Automatic annotation (TrEMBL):
Keyword DNA-binding among UniProt keywords: yes
Keywords attached to this entry: DNA-binding, Sigma factor, Transcription, Transcription regulation
Keyword DNA-binding in annotation: yes
Record InterPro entries: RNA_pol_sigma-70-like (IPR039425), RNA_pol_sigma-70_dom (IPR014284), RNA_pol_sigma70_r2 (IPR007627), RNA_pol_sigma70_r4 (IPR007630), RNA_pol_sigma_r2 (IPR013325), RNA_pol_sigma_r3/r4-like (IPR013324), WH-like_DNA-bd_sf (IPR036388)
Pfam assignment, any one: Sigma70_r4
Domain RNA polymerase sigma-70 region positions: 11-78, 109-157
UniProt similarity note: Belongs to the sigma-70 factor family. ECF subfamily.
Lineage: Bacteria, Bacillati, Actinomycetota, Actinomycetes, Micrococcales
Domain of life of the source: Bacteria
Protein name (database record): Sigma-70 family RNA polymerase sigma factor
Biological source species: Microbacterium panaciterrae
Amino acid sequence: MDDDEERLTALYDLHAGVLRRYVTHLTGDGAGADDIVQETLLRAWRTPRILAQEPATTRAWMITVARHIVIDEVRSARHRHEHPVAELPERAGDDETDRLFDALLIEDALAGLDDGHRSVIVAAYYRGRSTAQVAAELGIPEGTVKSRMHYGLRALRLALQERGVTR
């Protein structure tokens, strides 16, 4: 095996599994996910500066690229299947694609947190509970709720950054 082939194999071994799971989660299509993973790895291979970075940085870049490819695929499929109609619809709806992918990305990042941090964040942000209500609901002191919230949000921020979400 030559050097290029070894580097490509190493790139695939390091990142393909994670990319495939992520894209399958986004699309629900395992066969389509393989195509997107292949395209993502090809783009990484064609960008030497990406390959020279730390594996975590390379993975974050590839997750962002894969997400953009998925978005492009969704948008192009929608465009190809448009049919002309005699009358315009009364009101055009907003494109919810970005919101949907953001929600999936956050869900995936939350799943990577430990149960204590995740339960506090979900109770406070998704259920609208106050610190006292979260403490009572989970049977833990308010100080623990605040601490878990602080460290949980920090871990969530890092998880999102690893997935290519930047401030």
